[in-house]
Amino acid sequence: MATGDFVDPPHRLRVRYCETDRMGVAHHGSYVAWFEEARTEWLRRRGKTYRQMEDEGALLQVVDFAASYKRPIDYDDEILIFTRVQERTKVAVTLEYRVERADTGGLAATGSTRLACVSRDGRLQRLPPEI
Amino acid sequence: MATGDFVDPPHRLRVRYCETDRMGVAHHGSYVAWFEEARTEWLRRRGKTYRQMEDEGALLQVVDFAASYKRPIDYDDEILIFTRVQERTKVAVTLEYRVERADTGGLAATGSTRLACVSRDGRLQRLPPEI
Amino acid sequence: MATGDFVDPPHRLRVRYCETDRMGVAHHGSYVAWFEEARTEWLRRRGKTYRQMEDEGALLQVVDFAASYKRPIDYDDEILIFTRVQERTKVAVTLEYRVERADTGGLAATGSTRLACVSRDGRLQRLPPEI
Amino acid sequence: MATGDFVDPPHRLRVRYCETDRMGVAHHGSYVAWFEEARTEWLRRRGKTYRQMEDEGALLQVVDFAASYKRPIDYDDEILIFTRVQERTKVAVTLEYRVERADTGGLAATGSTRLACVSRDGRLQRLPPEI
Predict the structure, then answer these.
(1) pLDDT of B86-115, one tens digit each?
(2) For C28, nearest residue in chain D (alpha carbons)
(3) Alpha-carbon gap, residue D122 to D57, rounded angstroms
(4) Could you give phi then psi for residue A36, rounded to 5 degrees?
(5) What's the 3-state SS for chain B?
(6) Which of A36, B121, C87, D19 is the most exposed place for a label (fewest CB within 10 A)?
(7) For residue range C69-111, what is the model confidence (pLDDT) as tens digits?
(8) Residue C17 touches partner D, C-beta closer than 8 Å
(9) Where are the alpha helices (H) located in chain D, listed in sequence order?
């Protein structure tokens, strides 16, 4: 999975101080929030915000989460998060992420989340057409 | 505010790894979660859990939060959190916290939260009798 | 404390999904990270990043934290965080924050942090000239 | 992977309020902290705390993280986290987790983390004998 495989422009953010830990670099759990933020922006670009989706009763529940950490990143580092669809069914979509340092382009991490579309009462339902 | 001023037994917890930051000690934001956890246990002891309160439509919204940090605490340190009422009105209660190291009893931090009781639609309402 | 009292342009960010809680709005602890991020940008504008300061051995330890919550903000809301100096001594600085909704300009919260400048071994030292 | 495959007693904890999100249940990122806390206790039972390991220069860096979410859990729910070794090499260990509701024993999630043992300067080194 190289950068060229990602059609959408990446989401850019800076590592927060509170996202580091006593090892002196970003905590591995911080990537959960970053993937989520990248996903929010990826969805916005498809014409419907995730907030609208939820308000309309289409919840995207995280069913599987995976991340592989390649190289540590530190507080105040700028990163780029590339997002794309890896697989799609009627009721679920798997998104793939690639995290790069903004300065060197060096690979920091890769990851994926499988999201199932459910109603407020937890029943599986079709993904919105925007996805 | 000395330990003797607190009637209830303290809540005990251990600092999580993810609660530290690159300064090598617990991040000042971690105390928000600790006060909240101590508050949950303090309420449970009064005979009604906060979860029940929310389910019955009595939400305790944090209106003011304050903390003073006296001495850093580190990953895996055990701490005690003492909780008591500082002030109470018909619709709001201010809780006070004192954080001590479990090993030495040394003071780590103090803090307070003012909580207003509101309904699901945000209207002020009377505090439940348990508080 | 009105917006006009803040000389620096505000820091803009969007509320993350993980920053909300079961009350359906941003958790009161999320503001800790937002004030911190605003502070990082406020310092960058003064000519030295906080990361540089730490690398040079000047740590800004949070000694006091306070926040007052005026109106809830929700996932995906855009907010503006204004930052300014409230008080300064040789070794400590108190920063003041004002959080507004980006769309309406409505006040969401105010807050402050007192930061003491310490060395790696915890001794108080003079604030860097940039502050 | 059934409960019987886990030799060690599970780690028990309660879901914190701040660990929920606007979907009304625990956020998928909260499991990162829970696996970490379970790991800390699993290591303590082996005779050396992870804090000691870090102090002695043996850091366990998370290289891979995975979680599968089976059934939502909510604020104040009590959960049990079972931990065991899935695979071990000279320099890395993969731990497996199983999260159950404490009341019903129902499966909430499974997960794993691969941890590489590195020195302060990031070089791979042998795992401590306790692992």
Answers:
(1) 999 999 999 999 999 999 999 999 999 999
(2) D18
(3) 10
(4) -65, -45
(5) CCHHHCCCCCEEEECCHHHECCCCCECCCHHHHHHHHHHHHHHHCCCCCHHHHHHCCCEEEEEEEEEEECCCCCCCCEEEEEEEEEEECCCEEEEEEEEEECCCCCEEEEEEEEEEEECCCCCECCCCCCC
(6) B121
(7) 999 999 999 999 999 999 999 999 999 999 999 999 999 999 9
(8) yes
(9) 30-44, 50-55
Hey, how many other C-beta atoms are within 10 angstroms of the C-beta on B37?
18
Q: Write out pLDDT tens, residues A25-63.
A: 999 999 999 999 999 999 999 999 999 999 999 999 999
Q: Residue A38 corresponds to which amino acid?
A: A
Give backbone dihedrals phi and psi of C15, rounded to 5 degrees, phi first: -70, 130
Q: Which residues of B touch D40 (CB under 8 A)?
A: 14, 16-17, 76
Distance CA D48, CA D42 (A): 10
Q: Which of residues 87-116 of C touch B (CB under 8 A)?
A: none
Beta bridge partners of B118: B59, B124
Residues of D in contact with C16 (CB under 8 A): none
Residues of chain D where predicted confidence (pLDDT) is lower than 70: 1-4
Strands in D92-101's sheet, in edge-to-edge order, are: A11-14, A78-88, A92-101, A107-118, A59-69, D59-69, D107-118, D92-101, D78-88, D11-14
Residues of chain B with pLDDT under 50: none
Say what the pTM is.
Answer: 0.96
Query: How much is the ipTM here?
Result: 0.95
Partner residue facing C62 (CB), from B28, B36, B59: B28
